[in-house]
Every structure is written in C-alpha cells, then in structure tokens.
Design brief:
By secondary structure, the chain is an alpha+beta fold. It has three helices and three strands, in the order βββααα. It has a three-stranded antiparallel β-sheet, covered by helices on one side. The chain starts with a strand and ends with a helix.
Length: 80
C-alpha cells in the first residue's frame, strides 16, 4: 500500500496499490467523502497509466489541482 500526502486539496492523503499495472484499494482521507469514494470505485482495476491520462490536470475551482489530479500525481510517483 502506497501513501501519498496531497497538496492543495481538501483531502489530506491517498492510499492505493498498483498490482500488475492496475489500481486497487484507492482510498482518500478527508475531502468530499461521496465524490472521493466514487473516484476510487471508478478507477478500481483501471490501468494506472489510463487513470493518469484521464485525471491529470483536472482543477477544482482556483486551486490549480484537485483530488483527481492529486491521484494522477500520486500514481506517477508510485515506486516501481
């Protein structure tokens, strides 16, 4: 399980695993609970590279990032 501390969002941390290139057990700590559970459910089993492609650059208001964008950044930093 990888733990990523978010920056610039209401959520504080994202925990997840990548197994055989696929995302699993995606859980956000803090933030908009229902929306973040939905993101986790939608990306479950998705190719990590596809999730980055879909989520990277999504912004929340004027923050310059979002919980989805932070997940993409976390995936990119996942230790190989």
């Amino acid at each position: 399980m990888y733990e990523y501390k978010t920056r610039g969002t209401c959520s504080k941390k994202i925990n997840f695993s990548i197994e055989n290139g696929k995302l699993s057990s995606v859980k956000f700590e803090g933030g908009c609970n229902g929306n973040l559970k939905a993101i986790g459910a939608l990306v479950e089993g998705m190719d990590a590279s596809e999730a980055v492609k879909r989520l990277k650059g999504i912004c929340c208001e004027e923050r310059g990032t979002s919980c989805a964008d932070q997940l993409a950044k976390a995936i990119e930093r996942y230790p190989a």
